[in-house]
Amino acid sequence: MNKKPTVLLILDIVSIILLGVAAYLALSYAPMEATMGNVQRVFYFHVANAWVGLLGFLAAGVAGIAYLRTGKQKWDIIEVAAVEISLVFFLIAIVLGSIWARPIWNTWWTWEPRLTTAAITELIYLAYFMLRGGIEDPNRRARFSAVYTLVGSVSVPITFMAIRLFRTIHPVVIGTASAQAQGGFNMSSDMKVAFFFSLFSFTVIFIDLFWHRIRLGNLQAKVEELKLNVME
Amino acid sequence: MGAPETTNYMIAGYAVFVVIFSIFIASLAMRWNRLKKDQQTLQELEKENE
Question: In whole angstroms, how large is the CA radius of gyration of chain A?
């Protein structure tokens, strides 16, 4: 069980290559945007990280439903893995967005709908680990966590739709932005290549890390079981 | 009029990505190694108890 599967090893290598190519496309291949300069290149990784972050939060909600239906520990392990990885990716997306905002909006942070909903989503899933840390009984912890991720996953579509439903200064690259949007731009074909390749690459990287984190969770469960056996 | 000079922000953005991402990967590797050691120790203890 502990031996790394060959497919995972291949996925590791593919992920490293994809990350390198995505960085090349974002930093060199894509042309410099005329009104924002080089900081616009942050956008490729910003959107890709946000995408996999939200995807993972949704996956955690699905794992939560599966746990509540079956009561199987594996779903709890999958749920924790999804939340942990998504927290990291979504944090990166928020920080990159903030760095982009400084020269474009002339501020690191503003409480407009997208930034606010994104911050709330990140905090909801940060609190998830506080909840887990506060419950000792494993079954109770898993049940409460499953309900929490299920309720928490409501924040995902709200965050995604915030720039499309509310008056916001956050740009919409695909779709129609609000009239107040600042920092929007039309993607050239080379920019689209870098953008969609980043989305694809980070999806693969997410799957790779997700698998690793699930394996870590399984090992953790096994060690806990061994501890109980030794103590008996 | 040329594009504004915002290269430093771009570098800061990608540096932040590299740092956070590397810390997470290192954290995964460290936790894995620690658990493997714990597993080994516990398996030895289990054998001694038998």
Answer: 20
